Amino acid sequence: MEVIRMNNLSYRYPTTEEYCLKNVSFSIQEGELCAIAGSNGCGKTTIGNIIRGLIPSFHGGEIEGTLEIFGKSSKEISADEKAKRIGFVFQNPFTQNSGIKETVFEEIAFGLENIGVGREEIITRVMDIIEMLKIESFMYKHPLELSGGYRQRVALASIIVQNPEIMVIDEPTSQLDPKGTEEVFEIIKLLNRQKKTIVLVEHKMELVAEYADHIIYLNEGTVLLDGTAEDVLANEILYKKNLEMPQVARLGFQAREKGLMIEKVPITMDGAVKIFAKYGKCVKDGGGSHGES
Amino acid sequence: MDRQSVEEKLKRQGGVIENFCPFTKLMLVVCTAVLSILFGSLIYIAIISAVYIILSLAAHVSRDFLKSYFRLFIFFGLMLILMNSFFQSNESEVLFSMGKVSIYEEGFYRGCRMSSIILSVAGGLLFFTETTPIQDLMVMLGNIGLSSDIVYVVVATFQSITELSGRMEQILDAQRSRGIETDGNLIVRAKAVLPMLITLLLSSMVSAEEKAIALEARCFNCQGTRTALRVYKTTAADIIAMIVLALITGGIVVAGFIL
Ligand SMILES: Nc1ncnc2c1ncn2[C@@H]1O[C@H](COP(=O)(O)OP(=O)(O)OP(=O)(O)O)[C@@H](O)[C@H]1O
Ligand SMILES: [Mg+2]
Fold first, then answer.
1. Nearest chain B CA: its distance from A122 CA (Å)
2. Cα angle at B174 between B168 and B180, to 5 degrees?
3. Which of B152, B215, B227 lies at the smallest CB-CB distance from A122?
4. Same domain, B192 and B156
């Protein structure tokens, strides 16, 4: 079932002349982990903000085209309904907290208090989320004393506990170290397994390749590619136009250029190992692609 | 993690005194204020100081409380008495004189009264803030029917002051370790602090927009009734404390007028 459909959408911020999204159309299915990918400034965050409803209500600007969510026009969905049904987590770990709670447990409960969930149910739900995301070890810590990685996990927990049908997650790990990144993506993977619809705004192609079911690849405000992770990231256009793609995919294309006829271009490390393993002997003998790896 | 331990954590930690509900603590401030206005004197100051010291000890906040109370005592309490005593223009009886300096009776008593009021109210509020977690304050403000927006602003302001002063300390430490003078007279300090303050304010302005979005994502702007995870009820101890306070205050007032 289709949960999000964007049709010929164009948008410009109030402070700019130029449209930063031009005729964008795509649809996202229920239960899908859909990545909005592309290089810096191509409009990923803007799309996330439009789906979440922060554009135009919060940022203003001019918008053309249509957006349908849950089969309704986005305009017909009230702000309250959006807040409840579309979760939102963004980059900065340090601004995403209520700022008024003294333990992680209560921080996670904050959203449920705001929508009037009964006390007993709040406790049950928060306990479940803490267990699910494995954050017991710091559940009674002060939210403002946590490191960025922990804070981002708390931010995710705080939204997940509200049980939104769609989660828009905008570069959740851009300020985290590799360990923090891995822990956050473990959570995202878990959500994906539970068939939650996730819109992941992300420019790190390695992460996108590993986790996304569906990728919408933007370039300068238009949709360049739209399809499965393999279709998109192993697409020659990216290589030819020198756009961002996973390192191993680039390596694959370079290997082909050097005459190594691999049957397909890998997009993840594991995939690359499998594909190149077949040429194991060749590499040992000092084959062409040795220098690139 | 079981439900019982969670419930236990959500209860107020600490002993009877610091766990008094905010209203009880505010009543303490009001009672001492009333008494100080009526009976402010040197003896009153001694008694109220003793009371606060004992309370802070009982509430396990004596270290921070006494530090601040001591400053209050020196800079306001003592100063008020001295200023009033020396600079009394009216012709009144000299209480004590040493060479050219004389202490006038009227001024001395007035100074003691003013000092009593200041120490009572400020000391009481100090005790209130030292022993009241922001959470309590929030629940209390909500209970008296303030809208959630206002409660949020008040509580977040308290929190951010704590956060800001924490960050300020860090920056001051960093500056000190780089050899920038941060101690000394007012101008030296201002020079060290001002640029930092501006940076802090700017950075908090930038994060205000994100904060608004973060709150929106947590349904803070949603209509409808809210619930609270922490429920603080006025306990029997509170009621007893309030009655005792009322009785003592009333008793002293009545006794004061009869005698
Ligand atoms: N508030 C704003 N006002 C005006 N222009 C903006 C605003 N936010 C973004 N833009 C511009 O819109 C374009 C798209 O920005 P957007 O933030 O959506 O890109 P992005 O793909 O998320 O980039 P990044 O990878 O850096 O996060 C950029 O050219 C940017 O400069
Ligand atoms: Mg972005």
1. 7
2. 100
3. B227
4. yes
Distances, alpha carbon B80 to alpha carbons B48, B72, B75, B87, B112, in Å: 16, 11, 8, 11, 7
Q: Are A132 and A61 spatial neighbours (Cβ–Cβ below 8 Å)?
A: no
- Helices B42-58 and B22-39: angle between axes, nearest 10 degrees: 160
Domain of residue B105 covers 3-132+233-258
Domain with A32 in it: 2-245
Residue B127 and residue B149 share a domain? no
Cα–Cα dist B98/A30, whole Å: 90
- Same domain flag for B126 and B168: no
Instruction: Using a CB–CB cutoff of 8 Å, tell me whether A175 touches chain B.
Output: no
Residue B180: what pLDDT?
Answer: 67
ipTM over 0.90: no
Name, in order, each residue with C-beta under 8 angstroms of A51's C-beta and a sequence gap of 6 or more. Answer: A4, A67, A69, A86, A166, A168, A199
β-pair partners for A12: A62
Query: Considering its fold, how many domains does chain A have in total?
Result: 2
- How many domains are contained in chain B? 2
Task: Please tell me the least confidently modeled range out of A18-22, A263-267, A268-272, B87-91.
Answer: B87-91
Find the A45 Cα to ligand 1 centroid distance in Å.
7
| Domain shared by B93 and B190, yes or no | no
Contact between A167 and A127 (Cβ < 8 Å): no
The packing angle between helices B3-10 and A119-132, to 10°, is 110
Chain CA centroid to CA A3, Å? 16
Q: Considering only CA atoms, which residue is closest to atom 17 of ligand 1?
A: A45
Can you give the pLDDT at residue A290?
47
> Quick check: is A293 in a domain?
no
Percentage of chain A lying above the pLDDT 70 cut = 95
* Residue A52 · residue A88 · CB < 8 Å: yes
